[in-house]
Amino acid sequence: MATATLPPVQQLKQPDKGTVGIICLIMAESALFAIFVVAYLFYIGKSLNGPYPKDILEYPIWASICLLSSSATIVMAERALTRHRMGGFKIWWAITILLGAEFLRQTGIEWYRFIHNLHFTVGTNLFGTTFYMLVGLHASHVIVGLIFLLLVFGVTVSGFPIATQERRVKFLSWYWHFVDAVWIVVFTVVYVIGR
Amino acid sequence: MATLDYPLDRPIRRPREWSLSTLFYEWVATVDHKRLGIMYVMSSIVFLVVAGLMATVMRIQLAIPNNHFVAPDTFNRMFTMHGTTMVFLVGMPILAGFANYLVPLMIGTRDMAFPRLNAFGFWIFLFGGLLLYFSYLGGGGLSGAGTAPDVGWFAYSPLTGRAFSRGASTDYWILGILLTGVGSLASAINIIVTTLTMRCPGMTLARMPLFVWMMFLDSYLILVALPPLSACQIMLLADRFLGARFFDTQMGGSAVLWQHFFWFFGHPEVYILIFPGFACVSEIIPVFSRKPIFGRPAMVGAVVAIGFISLGVWAHHMFTVGMTSLSNTFFAASTLIIAIPTGIKLFNWIGTMWGGRIRLATPMLFCLGFLFQFLAAGLTGVMLGVASFDWQLSDSYFVVGHFHFVLVGALLFALFGGMYYWFPKVSGKCLNETLGKWHFWLFAIGFNVTFIPMHFAGFLGMPRRIYTYEAGRGWEIWNLISTIGVPIQIIATALFVANILWTYFKEKEVGDDPWDAWTLEWATTSPPPVYNFEAIPEVRSSRPLWDLKHPEDPDWKYER
Amino acid sequence: MTKRFRRLLALTLSPAILAGLEERRVGNIFQTVATPGDAVRQSAILVLSIAAGIFLVVATVAAYAIFRFRRRPGDDLTEPPQVYGSTQIEIAWTVIPLLIVFVLIGVTARVVAGVQDHPIPKDAIHATVVGHQWWWEIRYPDYGFTTANELHVPVSEKPGETPTVLRLQSMDVIHSFWVPQLAGKTDVIPNRENVMWIDPRETGIYFGNCAEYCGTQHAGMLLKVIVHQKAEFEAWVASQQQVAAEDASAAAGRATFESLACVNCHAIRDTPAQAGHTGRGKFGPDLTHVASRLTLASGVITNTPEHLREWIRDPQVAKPGNFMPAMQLTEQQIKDVAAYLETLK
User: Fold this and answer.
1) According to the model, what pLDDT value does residue C2 have?
2) What is the residue range of C96's domain?
3) What Rg do the C-alpha atoms of chain C give, in angstroms?
4) CATH of the domain at C55
5) A188 lies in some domain
6) C-alpha–C-alpha distance, residues C206 and B361, integer Å
7) Number of domains composing chain C
8) Is residue B267 part of a domain?
9) Contact B194/B103 with Cβ under 8 angstroms?
């Protein structure tokens, strides 16, 4: 019929499904964190009783170094994977896991000191409430990230061709970077502004 | 009309086998977006009926002053469950249902981006909804009788704290809504990814049907606005279970903080709920006026504008909490500004009808009901947006009248229109027109009789959420009229349900494209096969079927 | 219904000091009698007229379009001209609403600032209104007494002449103070003090409600503002400042009241039942002059001897869910306690 005169159909360049999906997830998570951050900022200095942040908070320098450098190591792991250097991938991936675990351990030590030694809990005052909930929310994301990192590590050492899943490894590393970025915000809000 | 050059496949209909395993595979294990869409819509209709019956009980209670039809606690639970159900178990799933069914068909693809996530979203929503209703049985915990939540759908703290809400009823509210929130988030992400990555060749964003545009922006709003609700519900949960102090005013906590957080979700939520209404109307009015939508770029721009401005208006629910005059003025201004894109949409719909050839079939009738009632709802919204007027109107029956005009008069009318319009898509049969017209007129009359008087009761100082009132306050007549409208609405809704059943079992099939429509969902069979399209269609304009039917004057000549 | 209403009316008007005060039961927000309410009303009428005008114009155009362009039987089935839009028209219907919105924003800003940023006069009468689940505690810090559920203020012949400043606090959850004929509502929020003011220019008894859902008996949290002539207001203050009446004939009831758990929640000033440090006597309304009030149970029932006895027998009948338990008193005790409370004029 009139087909001959039809203009050509525009071929679309559409983004990858997973890319858009993970960006959406990170957006939603950011909105979640934003509310906890706002609550923290709102309640700074509003506690009716001690202990106050300046009394007990210490800069978690070592923990922060661990977590932030794990962002670098996961990039190294990814690079190794794209170049099909499986040995390098496994080593960098394991270091990432260890760094993440060390961060959690440091958080655990801090919380043990607060809860066990100082009897400073989530119900002590507004500082306790907002501190544990914000830091805890972040730590729970580190845990989720670690579980997935371990999963990837586990299937890799048991012989699964992880190179076929490069895309998904990339999304996991994005999530991990996001968790790191949130830590920068949490660190700034809790340990710098809030003190 | 030219013959379609899309390959229409006609799957052979096998006789249905009614066995448990086919039922399981068809309805439980399915990841088909159309099935899930139907399941979303059906479950929200069930919740709609349940919450409607609660509203009926409340209207009976309020028909006369000093009534003892139900006890105060029963009434308080009912308005809480009514509101919560209508927002989270009717409005949210029905939008997910419409979007699930139609978005892939409209953009010419075979399924959603993440079909299993889609199924997960539905089931987690249903579980959350049932958990909320389980509170009637188990809300008191093992120790006591069941109690449903009685804190109102926005659950202001500190009324929701352990000290003022004992038992487990509020926990059911939190957990049930958290779960349905996860479901909504899953389907929102799915819709966004689907529209951004799976459009058929030629379907640029500019050519996407308005329905898809609005569902896309709706999903974006869900993505941004729903996590704050989850966040403040997690805080409340921590308060109730871990002894945290977020909303503990005795420990210096703020009662107003909850309101800020809740309404930061809550106002965008209103737009989340109404966008699907806009979406249906924007598809139906053009087809039944036989004209393309008037000012298409402006329509998209208006929704984008609403989507962004709506994130900055939340505190207009809080004009009475004692904010500074500057904040009150700011939020009044942002609220009033939203009236402009809303007005543009309304004018464009009227512009679409102007010069058309309007077919007054049932879907169109509902859309026209939508137009007038949405106009009224928008204008009462402007009144509420004027901060000083709001000091009188806030939390009065005027507000109740206003948001029912938005959610029933506008949204539900549009959705009814949508159901009449797309029912032939889903079943291959057109809903009966006679019953449909009765449904429309009875519902329109019943709706207006019920909800117009509420505005006047509000002018006379009647606060919302009261289970009874004393005589002589000037509210009796308005409440009585309001209650009289209820049975009319019930009859209308019953006619609708009867119509669905009658049509499904008794009516004849009407073909694939009974409305002579222009968007891609009508390019396949009705009902569509599991894989939607045998060959993925290609489009050259925003009305691909118009181009096919009018090769002498196709849209692509005029569109960029 | 009407019979009951008339009886109610007759009973409510009985106390001497309130004689001649007209009951304003209908809280019509368009019949305001105080400056803040008036300011809101004027802006409201303007907004209403604009909204009504827009509705009429747009609805007429829409209805005309539907009628004029409807498909008629016998129409040919050709498609109408396909129009995609019109930049000029669209700009017009963007700019016109924009102008209207700017007007509305200006009006709002003016009224909001006018009411909220109004300086509080130095010689104003101060009252602290404390919201409880489900009643109002009303303190007059300058006069040194506390009452409940009925806010008494003097009339202002000229606007702002003898205004009353209300400091709103809450003991538990969020409530909202709303007497529509006087002013818009202001929320009563725990851990936060909101301030509002009223200067009613007509005497009378103005009815209001708690306007924020606050639990089971939200509906039973009624409110009255009683606007007196100035001299009457001063007389009322003087009578409230007096110590609780001592009437030997009510000794039995008084003994019962003071020996039972009544005093845990209710205070009677300058008697052994006065409020204590640990919160004793602060949970329920102050009863020092309970007999002078129009109503019981925060406005749910009128203050008659019969109602008082029924209330003491089982408060859950008239106001189910409220925090006063049935004290399981004997009939004699009920009669005595009621008789004692009735002496507390």
Assistant:
1) 47
2) 35-72+79-116
3) 27
4) 1.10.287.90
5) yes
6) 52
7) 2
8) yes
9) yes
What φ, ψ does residue C49 adopt, rounded to 5°? -65, -40
CATH code, domain with A34: 1.20.120.80
First to last CA, chain A: 76
Note the pLDDT of residue B145. Answer: 55
> How many C-beta neighbours within 10 Å does residue C332 have?
11
Determine the 3-state secondary structure of C325 from DSSP.
Answer: coil
DSSP-derived 3-state class of residue A108: helix
Q: Can you give the pLDDT at residue B16? A: 61
Which residue stretches of chain B have pLDDT < 70?
1-17, 138-146, 560
CA B484 to chain centre: 25
User: Alpha-carbon distance B411 to B373, whole Å?
Assistant: 10
The bridge status of strand C301-302 relative to strand C145-148 is unpaired
The structure tokens 């675990």 sit at A101
**B63 at C interface, C-beta within 8 A:** no
Residue range A138-149: mean pLDDT, rounded: 97
Do β-strands C150-154 and C222-228 pair in parallel, antiparallel, or remain unpaired?
Answer: parallel
Minimum CA–CA partner of C210 in chain B: B463
Find the domain containing B428 and state its range: 33-549
Q: In total, how many domains does chain A have? A: 1
ipTM: 0.93
Q: Mark yes or no for CB contact C28/B372 under 8 Å.
A: no
Chain B residue closest in CA terms to C113 = B325
Subunit partners of chain C (3 or more CB pairs within 8 A): B
Q: Which regions of chain C are under pLDDT 50?
A: 1-14, 16
Q: How far is C221 from chain B (nearest CA, A)?
A: 10
**pLDDT score of C246:** 87
Structural domain count of chain B:
1
* Residue A155 amino acid letter: V
Cross-chain residue pair A46–B538, CB shorter than 8 Å: no
- Coil/strand/helix, residue C86: coil
- How many Å lie between the alpha carbon of B47 and the closest alpha carbon of chain C? 24
Query: Which domain does A126 fall in, by range?
Result: 19-43+60-193
- Cis peptide leading into A60, omega within 30 of 0? no
Q: Is residue B3 part of a domain?
A: no
What tokens appear for B346 in the block?
A: 């309304």
Q: How far A183 CA lies from chain B's nearest CA (Å)?
A: 18
Query: Does a structural domain hold residue A118?
Result: yes
Please report whether residue A107 resides in a domain: yes
**Structural domain includes residue B18:** no
Task: Note the pLDDT of residue A2.
Answer: 46
Q: How many CB atoms lie within 10 A of CB C336?
A: 21
Helix H segments across chain A? 17-43, 53-56, 61-82, 86-112, 126-157, 166-186
Main-chain phi, psi angles of B473, to 5 degrees: -90, 0
